[in-house]
Amino acid sequence: MARTGVEQLLRDPQKPREISFLELFFDLAIIFALTQFSQRFLRDFRWENSLQTLILLAAVWWVWVGAARTTDWLDPDKPFPQVIIVGMMFAGLVLAASVPQAFGKHGVVFAGANVAAHLVRHLSIARALRGHPVGKRSARAATWFGATAILWLAGSFLPATPRLVLWSAAVILDYLGVGLGWRVPGLPPTPQAHLRVLGTHIAERHRQIFVIAVGELVLTSGITFSRTGLDIVRMSAFALAFAIAGLVAWIFFLPRGLTLGETLDRRRPAVAVFASYTHLIMILGIVVTAMSAEILVSRPLGETRAQWSAAIVAGPFLFLGGRALYAWGVFGRPAWRAPTGMVILAAISPAMVRLPPLAVAGVVGLVLLAILFSYQHIGPEARRAGTSVERLLKKRRNPREISSYELFFDLAMIFALTRVSQRILTDFGLVNIAESLILVAGVYWIWVATAWSTDWFNPDEPRLQRLIIGIMFAELLMASAVPTAFGAHGLLFAGAYAGIHIVRGLVIVPALRGSPLQARSARVLIWFSISAVLWLVGAFLPGSDRIALWAAAIALDGASAWFGWPVPRLSHAPQAHLKVIGEHIAERYRQVYIISLGALVLLSSLAYSRAGFDYVRTLAFVLAFTNAALLLWSYFLPPGRDLGNVVNATAPRVAVAAAYCHGIMIAGTVVTAAGAEMYIRRPLGAPSAALSMTVLGGAALHILGRTLLGLTVYRVRRPWRGPVALLVIAGIAPGVVIAPPLVAPIVGVLVILGLTFNYRKTAANPPLRS
Fold first, then answer.
1. Quick one: CA dihedral 213, 219, 220, 221, positive or negative?
2. Which domain holds residue 46?
C-alpha cells in the first residue's frame, strides 16, 4: 500500500533503523561541545562555575537527545529531516562556541541558539505533519519549549546568579516535559504508543555518543601531550589517561547480556527518557575526567593540590554513579559494583590529596580495573566455536555494522587531522604544506591498513580488539609528534608508524598458521618492513632528505597495495585473498571521510569561539560550516551510487583506488580546515596570497579526489564537472589573492555548491565489472 506524503517523512517501520551518516556528522558537534565543557571546568574549580557548567552541559545534551529522537521518528534520508538535523547541528555548534562566556557577555547567544534548536524543530514538524500523531506530539512539545523559552531568554539579560536560577528552572522543565509526555492542560494525554522510540536505534545512538564522549577524553589528553615536551614521564601520564578512557568504555559495555535496545522495546517509554538522564551523568563524569587528564598530562609530578586530586577522582566517581543508576533504572538490576567503587574512591580521597596527579590517577585506574574484573564473570560467555584461525577469519553477520572498537579507533583520526591542520596554520609555505601532506598520508595509511584488517579478520575476536587499541595508542603518539615530526620528534613519528605495521604483522601472521591466507599477511609484513627502513633512516636525516625518504616510503606502501604485495619467489596472491567486503569497506571509507570533516568543524568552531561573535566572523563561521555540509552532501551524490556494490563486483584494485581517492579528499579537508581557522580569525584583514591559495587549494584537492573517484571507481564517462571547477578556481585565483581573506571561502563555497547541484542531476553509471 502506497504511503501518503506525510507518512513518507516518517521512518519506514519495515526497514532497519541503522545510524545514518547525517547522524554521525551531527555528533561531531558534540565532540567540540565536550571539549568546551572540559576547558570551562578547568578554568575555575569553584562551585558556582561547576554548577553553571553543569546547566550548560545539560542544555547541550538535551539538544542531542532531541536530534536522536527526531531521526528515530523521521526518515533521515528525506530532505525535510535532513534540513532539521543540519540546522540543529549549527545551533549546537553556536551553543558550544558560546559556552566560555555563556554566563557573561554571550548569554543571549547561548539562550537564543538553545531555544531555536528546540522550537524551530518542533514547530516545523508540527506544521509538516499536521493532523498526524507525530505532528500533534511535536505541537505539545513546542508548547513546553515555548514556555521555557521565556526563562532562557529572560535569564540571558540578567546577572550571573539570577541567570543561573532561571536557566536551572528551564533545564528542569525541559527534562520534565519529555518525561511527562509533554502533557498540556486541557488536552488528553498523549497515548503511550506515540511516545515510544525504537529501542535498537536509540540504543545505537547512545552507544555511539558514549564512545564519542570517551574519544573526547582521548582527544583532550592527546592535545595536552602534544603541547608538552613529549618526555617519558608525560608519555607515561598520557598512557595512563588513555588506559582510564579504555577502562571507562569497557565498564560501560559490561556485564555481558544486557541489551539496551531489547530492553527499551519491552519496557515503558519513560525508561528511554531515564536512559538519557543517566547517560548525561556518565558523560558529565567523562567531561570531568577529560579536564583532569589535562592536569595529569601537563603536570604529572607537579605540586600536590587538593583541587587537582579531587578532580581526578570526581570524574570516574560521577561515571560510576551514572552507571549504577543506568543498571538499576533501565535494566532493573541490583548495582553493587559501581557503588562499591564509588565508596572506595570516596574513602581513599583524603589520603590522595598529598599525592601528585600521576599517583592519584594510578590509584583511580586500579579501582576501575578491579571493577572491570568483577564484571568479567557476569553474564553469558561468548560462544567461541571453531579453531583459533576460524574464529579470527569469521565473517561478520552484518557487513555494514561498525564495531565500537572501529568507531573508537576513528576518533584518533580527528586528533591527528586537527594536529596536521594546525601545523599548516603555523606556516603557509610550500615546504611546510608538503611536509604536512606527507604526515597526512602516513596517518591515513595507518587507518587504511587497520580498516582492511578489520575487514579481513573478525573485529569481535579479542586478539584483534587488543591490536586495534594498541594501534590507536601508537597513532595518538604519531599525532602528538606531528608539530615537530620534521624536527626533534621525527623518530617518534616514524617509529610509531613502522611499529604499527610490523607489530600488526607479527601478531597476525603466526595466528594464521595453517591457513592459506597466512601467505598474504606475510607479504604485507615484508613490504611494510621494507618501507620501515625508509621511515626510520629518514628520521635521522635533515629536513629535505627526510621529505624525500618519507615521500618514497609512502609511495612504496601505496604501490605495494596496488600490486597485491608481490614478493619474489612467492606465488602471487590469488585475487580471492585480496578481496574485501564491499559493504564494510564502503562504510569505513565513508566514516573516515566524515571524521575528516570533523577536523574542519572542530577547528572552525574553536576559532569562532575564541575570535568573538561579531557579524563578519559569524559570516565566516557560517561559510566554514556550509562548506563542511556541502562536502558531506556532495559525497553521496549522484543518487544511486553504492561503493559497496562496486567493490564487490570489481577487482580488488578498485578498493585500493578508492583508498587513494579518499586520501586526496581528506588531504583537501585538512588544508581547508587550516584556512578556515585563519579566515575566521581575521576575515577582513590584509590580503594574504598564502591564505587564499590555501583555501582554494583545499577545495581543489577535494575536487581532484572526487573526480578521480568517479573515474577509477564509478566509471564516469564524461568527468567534465571536476576539471571545469578546477579551471574556474585557477581562473579566479589571481583576483582572490589580492582580496580580503573572506573572499576565498566565498569563492570556494560557490564552486562546491555548483558542483553539488550538478552532481545531484547526474545519473549514476553501472559499476565496472572485473
1. positive
2. 17-190
